[in-house]
Amino acid sequence: MGRKKAGAQAEVEAPRNEILQALYGDNLPAGYEATVELTRAMLKTTALYDRFAKRHALNVNSLMVLMVLHYSDGPRNQRFISEALSLPKQTVGSISLKLKEAGHLAESPSAEDARAKDITLTEEGERFCAAVFEELRALENRAFETVDAAEIEAAAASMRAFAEAFDAGLDEADASSRR
């Protein structure tokens, strides 16, 4: 490992108590370390997928939009992609426009909803995605050699439960602030 990378790695691996101190000062309530660790794990995972995406001139959100389209059985609309990825429709629209300009996507009027457009991969987009997702699956498979799929599924279930509870709390806070 090069000198620069070794230094960066040392920064990332700062002692846990230093990280908690940096994030919360002396005011970290008891039991909240788990939420900090959960957030850090989510951010690190997102950063790693973004790093992978950048290797292909994408960002993590573009990668995920392509993933939805690549693995879907048929065309999808902006609303479906937005809901599937928890992204604003405007973000999906911007990504779709850029991917369309790059020749990866095509749009056509939706047979189900005249106001919507179906989004599909072009032949060029299919080839691009096949290569990108083959490489991604190889990296993920390598990770599965050291982390059991059941552990990842359990972590995902816990993250979903936390996200749903947090969402409910935000909804309640929003409702009470409007009163």
Shape: globular
Element order, helices and strands? HHHHHHEEHH
Could you tell me how far the N terminus lies from the C terminus, measured between alpha carbons in angstroms? 57 Å
Q: How would you sum up the major sheet?
A: 2 strands, antiparallel
Instruction: Give me the secondary-structure category.
Output: mainly alpha
Helix content: over 70%
> Which strand order spans the largest sheet, edge to edge or round the barrel?
1-2
Mean pLDDT: 87
Task: Flag low-confidence runs.
Answer: 1-11
- Rg result: 20 Å
DSSP strand tally: 2
Q: Can you count the helices? A: 8
What share of the residues does DSSP label as strand, in percent?
Answer: 5-15%
